[in-house]
């Protein structure tokens, strides 16, 4: 079933209806419950980086519907994240901080701020501190500092590119290409563990979201070579990741529930990147369309006000997979 024009709006409304809550019950804040129905007591955990993507989704919604409530909700969510995180912005994982830095950086841009707010500067400083020459470069995954990986390095590169630090962003892209690019597949591997040697131990897992953030960084930094690499990566994703119908695999609940949504966000950016090969742009749009159609056709009605989307269509349903659906539908709506 083709995806209708109002599918992204339906996903946004459904997430808001099923998952949006006050943060610690404080007025003027928002936070996404990790599941619907929302767990209570000691099971009422939260996930910092899921909330960062919730914030990004609200900004996508605002760009689609500037007169709607999304920007107000985004501001409340930013306050809610800070409050739930103990009145601070940083945590122990640089990839988490990179996701929130990117979302807050977008919020600053939408608000027309000439100078980043303190929260963006704090998170940017944390990312800069994790960019060292250990293992030849890259960004550490967490404050233990024994693993450098694509999930932290690629979004950090995109953050620095958007902040105007082109040289640092390019250095991170060069490290990813030299250390974590797999020529056999054309895709990027997960990371490199410190083992006392200069090269470390390679972790060869391939995840959809890693391909997405590298795409975002390549087109964010720009230049003929980077945009050419981005086109190559789009085509490798189509060959190695998408199914025969061109649809991308949908992550399950838990952290993996966000993975393909993140890839979709940056496929959309790649599809509209100046100078990208026409064939790669068309391929990116085709994958977005096929994946959105699969999500929409597999939806189920929860009540008169909300839908659930694949892969989780039964309750309790996880926030991550529903954000994934929202991201994919916004990406398809914007660029297809």
Summary keywords:
two-stranded antiparallel ribbon, mainly alpha, 336 residues, Glycosyltransferase
Report what the structure shows:
There is one protein chain. The chain is mainly alpha-helical and 336 residues long. The chain has a single domain (7-48, 133-335), classed as Glycosyltransferase (Alpha/alpha barrel), CATH 1.50.10.20. It has helices spanning 7-19, 48-64, 70-84, 94-110, 118-129, 150-162, 166-179, 208-221, 224-240, 259-271, 278-297, 319-335, and strands at residues 20-21, 31-32, 35-36, 147-149, 181-182, 187-188, 191-193, 201-203, 300-303, 306-308, 317-318. Strand 5 (181-182) and strand 6 form a beta hairpin. Helix 6 packs parallel to helix 8 (208-221), helix 8 packs antiparallel against helix 9 (224-240) and helix 9 (224-240) crosses helix 11 (278-297). The radius of gyration is 19 Å and the shape is globular. It starts with 6 loop residues before the first helix and ends with a helix.
Which secondary structure elements does this structure contain, and how are they paired or packed?
Blueprint: H1 7-19, E1 20-21, E2 31-32, E3 35-36, H2 48-64, H3 70-84, H4 94-110, H5 118-129, E4 147-149, H6 150-162, H7 166-179, E5 181-182, E6 187-188, E7 191-193, E8 201-203, H8 208-221, H9 224-240, H10 259-271, H11 278-297, E9 300-303, E10 306-308, E11 317-318, H12 319-335
Helix pairs in contact: 1-12, 2-3, 2-4, 2-12, 4-5, 4-6, 6-7, 6-8, 7-8, 8-9, 8-10, 9-11, 10-11, 10-12, 11-12
